[in-house]
Amino acid sequence: MTRSNLKSCKRIVVKVGTGLLTRKDNHINPDRVEAIVAQIVGLKKKKLEIILVTSGAVGLGLGIIKSNVYPKTLSERQALAAMGQSRLMHMYETFFSPHHIRIGQVLLTAQDLHSKERYLNIRNTLWKLLEFDTVPIINENDTVSVEEIKIGDNDTLSAYAALSTDADLLIILTDTDGLYDSNPKHNPAAKRFSCIEKIDKRITALAKGTDSATAIGGMETKLKAARIAASSGIPVVIASGLENDALQAILQGEDCGTFFVPSEKGLSTNERWFAHSRKRRGGIVLDNGCTTALRKKRISILPVGVTAVKGSFKKGDSISIFSQDNEELGAGLSNYDSSECQTLLGQKFRTEVIHCDNLVLFV
């Protein structure tokens, strides 16, 4: 796939982050929200389906209590999110209503994605909202989320949204025009990557944390989201949301931001769920021979090719598959619990630790 293929995309997930929507005082910038809405309105007029993943609830909460200091404790963030979320939706309603565009709020936690039943319910709800010609506006439900059940960042949430809606494209808008070989805020000579075919160790090493107090994750989480979507067959573009025509330019195939080429294989709904949305409980480490074979073809993993077990998991859990140098090769459903896997290490049994039908590769 090339950028020119993006011209035919009909269903697009657009993610806008806190760093893009907030001012230096950590409060929401209404002008920036209005500019993003204007771009989405333009796409809706072309009969495109848009799913918006947005941050900003905590930033609006700060404005309500007249504070510029980002909260450090979970309870403070939850309280501010509770105050700010309604304001955030009201702001979007104010900007979308004059264009007669309906919106629908969807607040999610990690538990909603880890559970197969909830995941399918979310999928059905989002599809129905699109059928009603509505723009779903998705955010993490920070008010009820605790560390154990947090998705953690809206970049990852946007990838999950793309998977659950069978989106044609994921666009992550930020305050930087894509991925650079060094931080462009500190190095004027930094060069932008126009296209990335594979997110390998060299690429992930370029990712750094965020410079913003209110943003979470920075480029690191954006690359994680890009990997989730691209490995599932969905193209991704990370671009600057400070440009008023960014969405239009991307969908016209222009060299805007960084384009991540999707896997040609794609994944089924079930594969997308257990590989990405379902929480992985642990993992196994493969020897070099098994790793080489797996890179060439999706094969069942036998005990003889497994050298180590990571974490604790049960039979049927989704687990990660690692190489000897700790590269995550993929994920699959384990036929054994972790203690059983430990006893099988290196044994020449024909039984599979993971069957090829329950395995998804990221490489």
Description of the structure:
With 363 residues, the chain is an alpha/beta fold. The protein has two domains: 3-270, Carbamate kinase; 280-361, Archaeosine Trna-guanine Transglycosylase, Chain: A, domain 4 (Roll), CATH 2.30.130.10. It is 36% helix and 18% strand. An eight-stranded mixed beta sheet has the order 3-4-2-1-5-7-8-6, with helices on both faces. Strands 10-9-11-12-13 form a five-stranded mixed beta sheet, with helices on both faces. A hairpin with a 5-residue loop joins strand 11 and strand 12 (328-333). Helix 7 runs parallel beside helix 9 (219-231).
Please render the helix and strand layout as text:
Blueprint: E1 11-16, H1 18-21, H2 30-44, E2 49-54, H3 57-64, H4 74-96, E3 102-108, H5 110-114, H6 116-131, E4 134-140, H7 154-164, E5 169-174, E6 195-196, H8 201-204, H9 219-231, E7 236-240, H10 246-251, E8 258-260, H11 269-277, E9 282-286, H12 288-296, E10 306-311, E11 318-322, E12 328-333, H13 338-344, E13 359-361
Parallel strand pairs: 1-2, 1-5, 2-4, 3-4, 5-7, 6-8, 9-11
Antiparallel strand pairs: 7-8, 9-10, 11-12, 12-13
Helix pairs in contact: 2-4, 3-4, 7-9
